[in-house]
Amino acid sequence: MKKPMNAFFVFSKSYRKENPGKATPEEIGLKWGSMSARDRERYVEDSNRMKNQFILENPDFKEKRTRSVRRKNRKFMNNSPEKMREELLFKEYTNKPPKKMQEK
Predict the structure, then answer these.
(1) Of 5, 12, 85, 94, which has the maximum CB count within 10 A?
(2) Dihedral angle of Cα 81, 68, 9, 18, to the nearest 10 degrees
(3) Domains in the chain, number
(4) Over the stretch 52-64, which tens digit does the pLDDT of each residue have?
(5) Residues 7, 16, 5, CA angle at the centre, nearest 5°?
(6) Would you give the distance in Å from CA 61 to the centre of its chain?
(7) Would residue 62 count as lying in a domain?
(8) Average pLDDT over residues 38-53
(9) What contacts 40, CB < 8 A, 6 or more positions away?
(10) Which of 30-39, 55-64, 79-88 has the least mean pLDDT?
(11) Are residues 52 and 81 both part of a single domain?
(12) In a shared domain, residues 12 and 52
């Protein structure tokens, strides 16, 4: 059961077949960005056809989107509890955000 590709991936796959060994990701992205909407239409239609065929072949398919633990706890990974406590205290006693936030 292969999930359908979006239009850019369909284009990328065909471009790599036409230019084996020469197609870099940067080159493919620039080529896609320089194409007109009319040129892209062919790939959008192919993508939609693949999507419809997938839906017909797999009517009970439901995509599961899960967040990884690493991504979920990212904000806590880089900060030690002491550092977080200092920032909270700093926010309480002054109405200014910490220096880290002021620079942004």
Answers:
(1) 12
(2) 80
(3) 2
(4) 998 888 888 877 7
(5) 25
(6) 22
(7) no
(8) 93
(9) 7, 11, 32
(10) 79-88
(11) no
(12) yes
**How far from each other are the two terminal CA atoms of the chain, in whole angstroms?**
45
Tell me, yes or no, whether 53 lies in a domain: yes
Most confident range, picked from 16-30, 34-48, 68-82? 34-48
The answer on 78 and 43 residing in a single domain is: no
Give the single-character DSSP code of 19.
S
Distance from chain centroid for Cα 31: 20
Q: What is the mean pLDDT of residues 66-92?
A: 60
Q: By the 8 A CB rule, do 50 and 3 touch? A: no
Which structural domain, as residue segments, surrounds residue 26? 7-57
Please give the single-letter amino acid code of residue 4.
P
Same domain, yes or no, for 50 and 85? no
